[in-house]
Amino acid sequence: QDIIPFLSALSPDAAAMGSVNIVALEERGYIGYSTDGDGLLSAIRPKHAAIGQNVFIIGSGGAARSAAFSLAKQNSVTLFARNETAAINAAAAAGACWKPLSRLTECLSGCDILINATPLGMSGCENFNSLAFLRKLRPSALVCDMVYTPRETELLKAARSFGLDTVEGIEMLIGQGLAAFAIWTGILPSDLSKKELYIKICK
User: Fold this and answer.
1) What is the DSSP letter of 116?
2) Which of 60, 89, 131, 178 would bridge 81 by S-S if both were Cys, CB 3.0 to 4.6 A apart?
């Protein structure tokens, strides 16, 4: 978000989200893009339907805005956050709604996809106070963590212990990187390249 005033232009998605994670030098100057949404969708689709779902996103920052914007086009998306102003702005930009984080547990029985878009659980950051709220999810729910260091966060570990399917942050990161590669080079990596890249990074 902080780099936007210094850029020449934004892609339509980045402008709508109000956040940038990729900058490309083009003829018209430095152009800002956001590949967070592409990375998220590429990681979710092989494991869960990404259409007509009730998606709950924890957070209201740039990552949450990107996730909400990408998923709200074909799903019902709700942001759960402590920062009311940021949540209202992010929800409005994405076409989603928001609720206070304190209401997450009581709403989880209706959640199909739960996404952590905060630094909670990241190496060097604080963790969730409790992960007992995951027990409220239906067995078919998918739990995604946008944190990729460590690869298996406490959130994902707990979700798996409860028998829930998960998506690791590294899967999203690879999807973001492949989208960035295409922006910078004009070359879209093949499915084989994606698989090989995933294997190499996870080693």
Assistant:
1) E
2) 60
Four-residue CA torsion sign, 39, 45, 50, 55: negative
- Write out the two tokens for 140: 């078919």
Task: DSSP for 66-103, please give it.
Answer: HHHHHHTTTSEEEEEES-HHHHHHHHHHHT-EEEEGGG
Q: Are 148 and 169 in contact (CB under 8 A)?
A: yes
pLDDT band at 106 (very low <50, low <70, confident <90, very high): very high
pLDDT tens readout for residues 28-58? 999 999 888 888 998 999 899 888 999 999 9
- 16 Cβ contact list (under 8 Å, min separation 6): 69, 93
**Is the pTM for the entire model greater than 0.85?**
yes
CA-to-CA dists, residue 16 to 32, 55, 147, 203, angstroms = 12, 19, 23, 36
Ramachandran sector of residue 29 (left: φ over 0; alpha: ψ -120 to 50; beta: rest): left
Distance CA 134, CA 131 (A): 6
Position of tokens 């924890």? 58
Phi-psi region of 111 (alpha: psi -120 to 50; beta: other; left: phi over 0): beta
